[in-house]
Amino acid sequence: MQSSSLERLAEAFSSGAERGASYLRQIGKRQVNADTSRLSDLDPGLPETGLGEMAVLDLMETIGGEGTVASTAGRYFGYVIGGTLPAASGARVMLSAWDQVADQLTGPSVLEMENIALSWIADLLQLPAETSGAFTTGATMANLTLLVTARDTLLSRQGHYRGMGLLGAPVLRIVASSEIHATVLKSVRMAGMATDTIEWVDVDDQGRLKLCDLPELDDTTIVLAQAGNVCTGSVDPLKGLGTRCQEAGAWLHVDGAFGLWARLLEPLRHTYDGLELADSWVVDAHKTLNTPYDAGIALCRHPHEMEASMAIGAGYLPATHPGPSDRAPEFSRSARGAETWAALLSLGRSGVCEMVTRFHDHAVRISEDLKTLGFEVPHSVHFNQVFATLPGNEDACSDIATHVQNSGEAWFGPAVWQGKKGFRISVSNWTTADEDVDRLISAIASAKDAVLVS
C-alpha cells in the first residue's frame, strides 16, 4: 500500500514539474499581464467526491496558468520581486519531494544548507564575524523578528526582562527616515510599539535620511534606516548613523530587502560604508538574488539576543545546539534556506556581482532612454530603481503605465514620490536582457504618444 501511494505521489510530482517546465518554455513569448477572464472557473464548487490529481493539475495549468502575471520572465519591471535562478528553482522542486522541516531533528541537511547560506551572505555583505540569523517567510517577518529582538534587548538593558510583557515597560523611542518602507512600520506595530510617536527624520532630494536632522539618541532608541529607497534605490548615511547609535547605546536597524546586494558593486560600495556598524539587517533573497518566494533573511550581530526572543522549549523536544530555527518566529519552518544555498553555489561570488551589475546597468540605460523620451528622472540611479515623471503632465504617467500593462509588452506601475506623480521601474530579474529593455522603452514611447494624443 505504501509503495503504491508513493508511486502515485511521484506521478503527480512528475506531472506538475513537467507542466511547470512547459510554462517556463513559453512564458517569455507571452503577454506579461494576466488573462483573468476565466478565473471564476477555478471555483466549480467543492465536490462531494474529490477530483483526481491529474484533473486538478489540468485545471490549475489551464485557467491558473493564463491567470498569472509573467513576472518570472524578463519584461516584468513592477515590484522588486525578481525571477528564479535555475538552481534555486530546481532546488525548490527537490525540496517539495523531500518535505523537510528546517530544524536539527527533522531536517539536518536542509538546516545545514541554511546555516551555510547565512554565513555566505554575511561574508558577501561584509558584516561582522559574529553575525547570524534565520530565514523567514519574507522581509516583513524578518523585520518583525529583528524589531522584537531590538525591543526585548533594549528593555532588558533597562531592567524590564523578557516575559514581563509590555504593560508597564519603559517607553522606547523610534527614530526613522520619513521614507522608510511601509512594511517596516507594519512590523513596528506588530511588535507592539507605537508608530504615532515615531520621530521622523527628513530626507534629501535622493530619498536619503538627513543626518544633520537626526535627534539626540539614547539607549532607549531604535533607529530605522534603509539601504535601498523603494523609488530611487538610495542608501541612508550608514556610517554616520552607526557612529551616533553606538555612541548613544541605540539600536540601528537597516532594511535592505533588495538594496544590500549593491554593496558588492565597486562603483556603489562607498555608499554602504558603515553598514557593518548596525545591529540588525534585513535582506530578501527572492528579490535581487532571484530565489523563490519565502526567502526573507533576518541578520543580527547579537544572535544570542535573537535566540532569547525567539527560541522555544517543550517537554517532548530534546536539547539541541541553537540554530536558525531558534532565531525565527516560526516553529514548523520550510527548508527555504536551501534554495538560497543553491542559488549562491550556482552563481559564486563573481556570478552574484555580475548579476547585480547587470541590474544597475539596465537601470542606468532606462533612466537615460526615458529622459530622451521627454520624461524627468529626478534622482541619480543608485542601484536598480528608476522613478520617472512627465513635466507639465504628471497625471498622464498613470495612464501611460496602464497602457503599457494592457499592451502585454511589459509591466510596471504608477508611483508617487516626494509630491511628484509618475511611475517606477525596478530591474531585478536575472533573465532581463537588452532586448527586453528595448521592448520596454518602445512600449513606453508608444503609450506616451497614445495617451497624449487622446
TrEMBL record:
InterPro entries according to UniProt: Aromatic_deC, PyrdxlP-dep_de-COase, PyrdxlP-dep_Trfase, PyrdxlP-dep_Trfase_major, PyrdxlP-dep_Trfase_small
Enzyme Commission designation: 4.1.1.86
Biological process per Gene Ontology, one example term: carboxylic acid metabolic process
Modified residues annotated as N6-(pyridoxal phosphate)lysine in this record: K287
Domain of life: Bacteria
Co-factor requirement: pyridoxal 5'-phosphate
Family per similarity comment: Belongs to the group II decarboxylase family.
PANTHER family referenced in this protein's UniProt entry, alphabetically: GROUP II PYRIDOXAL-5-PHOSPHATE DECARBOXYLASE, MIP05841P
Protein name, as recorded: L-2,4-diaminobutyrate decarboxylase
Gene name of the encoded protein: ddc_1
